Amino acid sequence: MLGARRPHSSAALLSAVLLLHVQAAAAVSFQVLAPSGPLSAPLGGTVLLSCHLSPTLSAQAMQVKWSRLGQDVHLYLPDGSEVQGERYRGRTELLRDGIQSGSLVLRIRNLTLQDEGHYLCDFQSDSTVGNATLELCVTSSGSDPLLHIGGYDGKQMNVTCLSVGWYPKPKVLWSNGHKERLTPSNKEKISRNQGLFDVSSSVVVTEHSDPTLICAIIPSSPGPEKVSAILISDDFFPQVSSWKVGLFLFLSVCVCLLFLPACYLWRVQRAKRKSSNLTTKK
Fold first, then answer.
1. What is the architecture, at CATH level 2, of domain 146-234?
2. Which phi and psi (to 5°) does residue 75 adopt?
3. What angle do CA 223, 226, 231 make, to 5 degrees?
4. Pairing of β 129-139 and β 39-42
5. Where exactly does CATH 2.60.40.10 map onto the chain?
6. pLDDT tens digit string along 116-162?
7. Beta pairing, strands 171-176 & 212-218
8. Which of 52, 95, 58, 97 lies closest to 78, judged by CA?
9. Phi-psi region of 124 (alpha: psi -120 to 50; beta: other; left: phi over 0)
10. pLDDT in tens, 178-212
11. Which of 81, 89, 92, 85 is nearest to 71 (CA)?
12. Residue 23: how many CB atoms within 10 A of its CB?
């Protein structure tokens, strides 16, 4: 009879071991990892926010939520359903390709300036909760600089550099044809239009300045700078050539040399006329 009971005892032991393994797996702790540096994406573009578990675990039966400033962005539920946040409705998509290995990626489309900030990625199992933070920076590359000449008084002029549609606020750098840094004539002017920055800056140009001016708009975030250049024509500051000055002096001397003998001869002739008139009267 004892021998007949052994298979049941073995089965019970095996079931107990399996139950312990299941409970241990359910109680496994994990960490949530995310990119440490800020992510940059263009205004109106698309960004991918990724989080994954360490050690590698399946997140299929977990709840995963992305949120920002306490507001839900996108929610994944253990039954496989999803809920989009109200502000992000129609703009988010969950990429589940790596869900079995604990990796989920949230795609956000049509980015706005209001989407910039810190996002919380939260994983929750029956026994463990973990989260990580991601930073998103939204950028906008403005227009090519427009150079405008004004305030010309014959001796100097103002050259203004204008560029619009930047985010975040850019810097303006002036240089000449020799790559020497120039100092603006006044502090750069910055205004905001629908959240984007418009910037303008001016330099003073005189007849002694390098005729080549270069205006560069330098973004504060990673991205290409925008550059425009202008060549100031000599017509703005007419200069008399040295050979013209020499010719003028030469002609002036010649006129003087011709004028003095002519004046002398005129006086001689005048004296003779007076003498002749006196003789005739007598």
1. Sandwich (2.60)
2. -125, 130
3. 160
4. parallel
5. 30-139, 146-234
6. 999 999 999 998 999 999 999 999 999 999 999 887 777 788 899 99
7. antiparallel
8. 58
9. beta
10. 999 999 988 889 999 999 999 999 999 988 888 89
11. 85
12. 10
For 159, the token pair is 């050259």
Q: What would be the CATH architecture of the domain defined by 30-139?
A: Sandwich (2.60)
* pTM, to two decimals: 0.70
Q: Do residues 84 and 67 make contact, with C-beta atoms less than 8 angstroms apart? A: no
Contact 126, 63 (CB under 8 A): no
Name the one residue in this structure whose structure tokens are 């409705």: 89
Tokens of 100: 């079995």
The H or E element that residue 199 is part of is strand 196-206
CA dist 243 and 248 (Å) reads 9
Q: For residues 62 and 64, what is the distance between their CA atoms, to the nearest angstrom?
A: 6
Q: Read off the pLDDT of residues 43-89 as tens digits, 9 standing for 90 and up.
A: 999 999 999 999 999 999 999 999 999 999 999 999 999 999 999 99
Task: Rounding to the nearest 10 degrees, give the CA dihedral for residues 54, 59, 62, 64.
Answer: 80
In this structure, which amino acid lies at residue 13?
L
Look up tokens 């507001």; give the residue. Answer: 71
